[in-house]
């Protein structure tokens, strides 16, 4: 499996479809434990990303990831903007100027994104944030030459669902303390859609 | 949802245009941004002060732009932090050669976006420092969480840091003074009725006719406790007790008091609230140097109020009384 600009574009477009279709769900989850704008903000970001992908052409994965990071930083706002934006910026740096990435190299790109999120958000696992999807998912598949995308998607979904019983310690949900228990984290959910979109794209492509 | 708007997507843009149209001699909008600056920015030889955050808190933050307070306010979408590129434009526009102080309310998004903007400005050679306001005693303070939220006490940080900068102090001095205010200002709010974010169309939470929520944030976040509706004197006591638990104010101490309406509570009720607060402060033999009552940090059309107490020292007292000439706050 080789990942080129074509696969990255298909992945991001699938991500846009997931976010657009689940905008209400993300906002409802955020309403329960935050301020209710996560779906709105993410939908605005992926819409701008779609416009960018429609109007510009890219040569290498690193280039498209960089351009998308600038859109996320500039258009999403809230906490999600800097987090997704920083992730994509570090992913772009890791992808460099390579035209095609192997599965192993691409996992390295995603791990660079995870590090950026951890650094920017200063969150650890178990704190009811998107880190609870990114970190364990990438750890599970670290070093794999081939990825079972069904396993990938199911793992991401399970990790997202696991945030339900967590007591929020970071992000706006932390202000609720114990009242945050019983609700799935909205950031973990949008991250699940990002990884589900990846599985759908690469599973079909293989 | 019943709101006086044209287009949900254009609210912030139209509000900013409306503000500059109303105050053409005081405010200027940086082209293609959501930044309002002092008409005469940058002021050479003065530390620039930039604040901002999500919209929906008017008059915060643009209402406090002007001599003696802020040099720029950056507006995000409703209840959503502005993005780093916007904050960066504000920093560049107000840097008069002495550096820029960012006054940030403690929300994960705001801190990250302002920090990123600060990093961008530092990369361009502008000296930037930041302070993070966390005055809300409703939420637990712990190094394991995001910490306490920034609410109405932020306005007093704007006022006092702004006055310090106007005196010609250095960036480090203005930052130090702002930190001093932050350490000594505590707030607590409550609400009677939730608010509706225009883009979502639904209220952030629901309250029955006979209920109130204690410890509500300024974004329609649920509070920490829901109780039956109580008279203003009992509400004042609840808010004061929680603040006092944290501040441990001693008899004879000099304080400033800020009663803040959250958007749809009439001034009449805010004065009733202050009547009850004043009695409690008198019982504790606290010396109230200044009381500020009004709408300063609102939460769209939320009903309710917050109480803020600032412990004064000679410098803070002097700077609080110093002149300020902004759209929403004059001294």
UniProtKB/TrEMBL annotation, chain A:
Biological source species: Alkalicoccus daliensis
Source taxonomy: Bacteria, Bacillati, Bacillota, Bacilli, Bacillales
EC number: 2.7.1.121
Enzyme class (EC, first level): transferase
Name of the protein in its database record: phosphoenolpyruvate--glycerone phosphotransferase
Keyword Kinase belongs to the record: yes
Alphabetized PANTHER family for the sequence: TRIOKINASE/FMN CYCLASE, TRIOKINASE_FMN CYCLASE
Keywords in alphabetical order: Glycerol metabolism, Kinase, Transferase
Entry keyword Transferase: yes
Catalysis: reaction(s): dihydroxyacetone + phosphoenolpyruvate = dihydroxyacetone phosphate + pyruvate
Domain DhaL: 6-200
Pfam families for this protein: Dak2
TrEMBL record, chain B:
Stored PROSITE patterns: DHAK (PS51481)
EC identifiers of the protein: 2.7.1.121
GO cellular component: cytosol
Source domain of life: Bacteria
Domain DhaK: 7-329
This protein's UniProt keywords: Glycerol metabolism, Kinase, Transferase
Role: Dihydroxyacetone binding subunit of the dihydroxyacetone kinase, which is responsible for the phosphoenolpyruvate (PEP)-dependent phosphorylation of dihydroxyacetone via a phosphoryl group transfer from DhaL-ATP.
Protein name: phosphoenolpyruvate--glycerone phosphotransferase
